[in-house]
Amino acid sequence: MLKSKVAVVTGSTSGIGLGIARALAAAGAHLMINGFGEAAAIDKLRGEIAAAHGVRVAFSAADLSKPADATGLIEHAMREFGRVDVLVNNAGIQHVAPVHEFPLERWDAVIAINLTAVFLTTRAALPQMLARDWGRIINIASVHGLVASVDKSAYVASKHGVVGFTKGVALETATTGITCNAICPGWVLTPLVQKQIDALAARDKLDPEEARAKLLGEKQPSLEFTTPEELGALAAFLCSDAAAQLSGVALPVDGGWLAR
Ligand code: NAD
Fold it and tell me: Which residue stretches, if any, does this entry annotate as coiled coil (predicted)?
């Protein structure tokens, strides 16, 4: 389906981004992966995905908290492949603290990576998508782009911003072959969430299994984690012709979280 197309997936060295990168490679896309991690582990990952799906896999260490790096990531992909057809804005961070104790430096980092970088990569990638009249922009927001939880003010603000930005881009590209959508996962068991499980276990003196069950029980009625593979399958669907008229939406994948 994506044969000879090129996908850039930010924050794809782990977690959800990696699940989406694998799914797009399985659909035939060449990949630019990005994120932090050990050089040897990232090289191994590149080789493994390339061999499994017969695609080219390049890597950029762009730090998306820096505006020049966010723009540079798209320039790097253009130099490497000559085109960017699919842009998945996935990189994101969390910081948990009450508003009145929230450090400005953490607020700025969350907004820079979760929201401003989404604007910068989209702005850089759009002109050549418009020139070919085809593109898919997929922003990984969160259920926290649609509702709030306590102690996550910066994250909730950034993800609501991503959902709003998604709608704006969808309107501006509505008469073209480009779509722009947001995916809004509930709990997914990745390093980002494991930190929150560890904090809950320490606070309430729970073992890891009890802490996981408590975290899910508070929010996610299915009592199951959403998986990176499920999110990858949804991203691949959004890239398909069947999704050509699907634009400007925020799709929850949350085991019923938002139905309460
Ligand atoms: P993760 O911590 O496993 O992965 C984050 C990825 O982003 C990693 O590859 C990391 O190296 C990269 N990254 C972090 N800071 C970066 C920076 N400054 N520049 C470039 N790359 C950077 O997290 P995850 O849970 O897979 O989260 C991915 C996205 O999904 C985030 O936007 C997150 O907000 C969102 N999300 C996660 C959950 C969840 O339950 N895990 C739920 C809803 C939304």
Answer: none
Distance 60 CA to ligand 1 centre (A): 16
Q: Whole-angstrom Cα distance, residue 200 to residue 122?
A: 36
pTM to 2 decimal places? 0.98
Residue 192 has pLDDT above 90, yes or no: no
Q: Supply the residues annotated as catalytic.
A: 155
Amino acid identity at 179: T
Q: How far is the CA of 175 from the centre of ligand 1 (A)?
A: 31
Q: Whose CA is nearest to atom 2 of ligand 1?
A: 192
Check whether residue 42 and residue 96 sit in a common domain.
yes
Residues contacting residue 40 through CB under 8 Å, at least 6 positions apart? none
Query: 194: which 2 tokens?
Result: 């494991």
Q: Is 11 in the pocket of ligand 1 (CB under 6 A)?
A: yes
How many structural domains comprise the chain? 2
